[in-house]
Amino acid sequence: MTPQTTSSITETTLPEDGTSQATWRHVFKRPWMGALIAALILWLVAGYATGTLSLSFLLANATIAGFLALAGTAQMIVIASGPGNFDLSLPFIITFGAYVMSAGIVGDGNVIGSLALTLLVGGLAGAVNTVLIVRLRIPAIVATLASGYIIYSFIVAIQSAGFSRIGGLFEASLRMRVWGGSGALAISIVTLLVVAVLLSRTVFGLQVHALGQNGEAARLAGVKRGWLILGAFVLSGVLAAWLGVLLTTYQGGVSADVGRSYLLGSVAAVVVGGTRITGGVTSVFGTATGALVLTLAQSDLILLQFSIGAQYVIQGLIVLVTVCLVAVRSPERR
The pTM is what? Predict the structure, then answer.
């Protein structure tokens, strides 16, 4: 082999190694990497507490985390549309969606019709939020809290009516086992993938990110803020209603508290997943990982026999520490 040939081989292999190392560095710097490592550690802690490292334990928690990830993703879309945008009506839309799905308004056994009506109600709730925010210029937190209480009044008014179990093929599909996981987990994953594609591969997704990063620059570029806010809140409402459908079907019933835990939980999943809460950035995978961390943390605390009060304190600390770490790593502080 001539020196020239050796030199040529060296020049062609070194960039490949450098590219590989750069790729790994890029992966480890992703905002959700901390949450992914935390989820692995929490799984190991559960294995230590139970004496066995169980994949079924992880999959059972993943099913619950899948529901939380849907709520977190719905919240994340609204957060991404601009600083200060939060949807506090989310848990009420989830609960109302569960009631509408179980009411059989379009006929008993008409699952498709009930599903379409439920998703329509979720979208309308998002549209009402948009009117309050864009047309009446009410801050998002105030507007969505007010609309949430209005929705809750409807829930109180109808909760004494008769509601039936969904049952049938739809319930069976959610409860069936798919590669060791539940059908509900599989459906949650498919939903999250669809939303991820919508946010990363469509004009709507790109414009939402642009609006959240710099509203004035987006306006000068021709982005219509009102329509994007409408799209974000409607999509959030549809996802919340869809979650209500999954919860009432999977649990085999509905109650007025079905969506209550998803108010702070949805925001916490976004934060723990490493997504910036100031807007302009989304990560469906990060939010899903954050939801898994929160679910595993609660399961571990139960296994370790912590009191309810201690569980809330520790979960709050997890969110607080994550927010601090994100703030320290934020480019604005450099």
Answer: 0.89
